[in-house]
């Protein structure tokens, strides 16, 4: 994966999409250089267990500070990476980089902090994704059971053989899976039934609007109850206020991610955050 060759075929792939905008092409044309010149970096958002008053770990999030085209948000960048073949080299770069940072936290804090990494369906479609992922962890001597791969609901719409094989291989080796942005896609209870899903993440659109209507609260409550009944974890993302945190606590949701506790942080700042807040 280090020597991933940038084939011009990926440009052809992108150009096959006739709806391509000039903005997309502009971003696309800077990707190779960005990867070579290390313009990408990761930030880490703490995931807190409020019932234990502890930091469970963090979710790694991609950032691109483009020297030529300015900051590009993850929401704009990721779909472009997915449409092109770039999701593969950059996806492996993300995993490697996140592992390296995680290793530092472990050495410094002696805590078994967990790491959530977002994975797109195209990554899971690559036949050797699972084995490559495990080999990266092995290189860093990291325990697979500390990893959760976050996949959005729409990835599950196209469960081909490779995706299933990768999910099963990783799961057999202790890696966990979370359904990200739960409730926004084509929620399919079959996935919860048939795949080794250990966590659902309630989409921030529900959480941020939680106090706007009674209906919203009911929907959140149902997602929490569903997870309890299925004996899987539930994380609320996008928790920005004390009021919403309190509401979630009242509904027995204790895994929290959001600006109320912390924005995504640079790795060293995340370390400071752990050292300041962790009660061991
Ligand atoms: P996501 O995985 O659902 O990540 C959560 C997003 O919510 C992040 O946005 C995070 O910064 C934001 N967020 C967290 N707490 C709050 C809050 O309290 N308030 C508000 N307003 N926002 C909050 P971000 O980093 O811009 O990422 C957007 C999406 O891009 C991610 O959504 C994920 O789907 C994708 N993404 C980011 N990094 C990666 C990556 O490394 N690989 C892949 N495949 N996708 C990624
Ligand atoms: Mg996520
Ligand atoms: Mg998420
Ligand atoms: Mg989400």
UniProtKB/TrEMBL annotation:
EAL domain location is 24-278
This one is known as: EAL domain-containing protein
Species whose genome carries this gene: Metabacillus fastidiosus
Q: Which part of the full protein is shown? A: 81 to 360 of 360
